[in-house]
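Box S1 | Example of a co-folding query
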Amino acid sequence: MVTDESSIGAGIGAAQEVLGRVFGYDDFRGDQREIVEHVIAGGDALVLMPTGGGKSLCYQVPSLVRPGVGVVISPLIALMQDQVDALSALGVRAGFLNSSQFPDERRTVEAQFVAGELDLLYLAPERLRSEATVRLLERGKVSLFAIDEAHCVSQWGHDFRPDYLALSVLHERWPDVPRIALTATATEKTRDEIIHRLDLGGARRFVSSFDRPNIQYRIEPKNRADRQLLDFIRAEHAGDAGIVYCLSRNSVEKTAAFLTENGVTAVPYHAGLDNRTRATNQSRFLREDGLVVVATIAFGMGIDKPDVRFVAHLDLPKSVEGYYQETGRAGRDGLPSTAWMVYGLNDVVQQRKMIESSEGDAAHRRQLQLHLDAMLALCETVSCRRGQLLAYFGQPDGTSCGNCDTCLTPPESWDGTVAAQKMLSAVLRLERERGQRFGAGHIVDILLGKSNPKVLQHAHHELKVFGVGTDLRDVEWRGVTRQLLAQGLLAVHGDYGVLTLTEASDEVLFQGRQVWLRREPERVPAKSARAAKQAKTVVDMAPGDVPLFEKLREWRSATAKEQAMPAYIVFNDATLREIAARKPGSLAELGTVNGVGENKLAKYGEGVLEILAQA
Ligand code: ADP
Ligand code: ZN
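Box S1 (continued) | Returned holo structure for adenosine-5'-diphosphate
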């Protein structure tokens, strides 16, 4: 790739001008400046940035600076209209081509493209399979190709889209047009696959820090998940927008109904719903303030609603990658947000069972097992969760973040060797002496010395271990079992989730291996002062400014409704907060607020000043 060095200086000046005038931002963030500069000069780029890091600007600004139309490949057809609306609100000329359009709409956009009347064109990847689209692109001038959600090219990832494989055509047909591939998926394996499959060997790589300082990570023991969720929302996120993830369609439906009955408006989202309902629920989530969506992992990719204040997991995700992507949908606007999860013994049992019965060969199952083990290690850690997450993505940090549950309330570890020996020897006696296998519940009953019908039926009250565990409570034994499973000192098998020993169990039983366990704190305090400080883009809101902020939010809702677009497209929360704090008295002053560009100032400026005048 030849880069035109002489245009770099001019390029970055023009980029800075566009950033302020069109987007209303003072400065680029993180790697944005370097990326934009590189692409404007005609270089290829691979951009790895966490969700909320600001990937869109990396191709939007160069598209506005370079001559021609920026072509954005995106798999998210359902969101293209919103993306185009958001750009139009900024005064950027944008259009899209996908299968959801009527032919005449499509022809209009095609004509605009050829005439050079667009700045950005969004395209579904499958379009490029048709020679007609390729010829269309050849009739206009393309300034750059942006390949969004580039990890969709990875065959082993969970978002694989076969159409992405066809994107190698871009480089073949347009060798001189710069390409920028972007993703929030961070592992090295995915990165290498993107480079290989999209022929990006010569591209410059930009790898940002994957830390999301404004997200508070918390993982708590699961008792009654729906009740815990409700308490959490009421205590910390009443009236906020949030996403709740559940494993099954059934629990999605139940949880959404439970929340709604209890005064938290929630809608379900899963693959079993018909297309209309799904689209309606997604669109309500994007448009209304403070709606909760309860969903399977089918929901979320590409949802760039910036003010999602919490992401809750009621079931254990299958991998740290999944957990990180899902939680990353909180707080794109940089304001404090919570990633909250409950997790219990049944999660481990269920996930291990799913792996055992999964299709695919032994190597595949081994892979799933490794993913789950990493996830369990994150759940059971006694050190900083954020540190552990970053280390997983190859960015070890080493310090304590001060904004996760283990930092806020350090859990104690305790010497669980004797407890582990009791549990394991109960399993051993059943297995080796009697050839029997039982699930965790029954074994805990034996340890607690409960003479219930099942115990009596099998004469388990005659076992030597009967009643040796009365020093711990039922929930504590379940915690011990869960941690032994997580540490691989115990295994679970079959449909009934029976417990069996592992090779490592012998080390505990017979070779004096010590076992350290995590004692869960009773309650985790909600917010910390450091949390707010760490969220860099937060404009601290004085309590006195809250009523004004609420007024501005009402104005925004009404305005968005009138124009039939999501509220955040008018202005996002961060911008409204800054307005409430600074109370600008003139259009010129309002124009200096972050997020207020030329077009929005012209469109909404008077309206905002009126609200301020009334206050
Ligand atoms: P990503 O696609 O990486 O998840 P987005 O492009 O959606 O992130 O950006 C996340 C949020 O950050 C958006 O609300 C966007 O307006 C804001 N943002 C991005 N870059 C900047 C910047 N340089 N200054 C201020 N806000 C920014
Ligand atoms: Zn921490």
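The longest strand covers residues 215-221. The CA atoms of residues 334 and 537 lie 6 Å apart.
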